[in-house]
């Protein structure tokens, strides 16, 4: 079987065992940043903003639980890739055969396209806020970011990882600064990390239910394509594939890297929800929770008083643009992984990028055209892409848990009983919640 992402596989050198732990951690760090990007894309932003706007701090517990589940799943992905030398798509194909693999590839591609739609919308709105570029033109401009990835790939995976980490750090600092100025209620924030039954029952008039948004947060936080991505890019490190001690060390540092970076994404998503709550909670649901409104609020003294500033609004729009560009890099790499892994089809990066982006922008252009550039309706499409991601998540979670819980496949690196139990419980709960969402959607249609 071909190596996963062969062009970067086994290309990053690792220090000798005698070197310091810090040097080793730095060498292994990077894949976690690429994975964390998927947990803070524009889809996360819109669900977190709406959650904070409509329900205050209520859904912070959902972000916390989703992030903890994500850390568990991503550690399993890293372990799978390091131990087997295959990514999740390749391992799943070996498990289920060609016919089912083709179906799983279609579902995975649709999930990637849903992610791309979120990135397109976020980037187009950011361009509109920063330079007043019409949405439909901004959507078309996003096709050009294919050249960004092509240029970066020439400098190697470490350059991409470094750039992504810088952008993540910038986004984190921007939101930390803006939330600090908004002066939120710290005690209420702390208590909101304890799950409440109100998440299942709360509903405001003319707004989505708390449960609906909570499921969108889960779909936006635990990203299906990240499970494939992580299992592949951890193999970019040049460790001894036949030495069990080397594998153990690689798994250890991959987990540390992943958990550190996912902690960044957790804090960023919390900060976005807190900012949405600070600016909009308690106001008319029809007038809150959108990117444009948040941008305007950061400039409006009547809404935010002393924190209002055009520079704050500009920082917000820049962070949104960086988020979209960050996520577009990882989306392309993941598309290559699932295509090669499930159906053994290899395309050049630029062809893959152009095809995926053109497919993704088509529904956005149609929506922008028929909705005449109404940002609220366009952003609603973005929310629904996150719901689809949540619905498609079990398709990747179930094979991952089965594979990493198999002693035959993983040997001494098999999941411990508690990790498997939590993973299967999370999957079961998600399937039940998804089923309930489908029933509610059907009922509301009649």
TrEMBL record:
Single GO biological process annotation from the record: iron ion transmembrane transport
HAMAP family in the cross-refs: NRAMP (MF_00221)
Membrane topology recorded in Swiss-Prot or TrEMBL: Multi-pass membrane protein
Biological role: H(+)-stimulated, divalent metal cation uptake system.
Name by which UniProt lists this protein: Divalent metal cation transporter MntH
Keyword Glycoprotein attributed: no
Location relative to the cell: Membrane
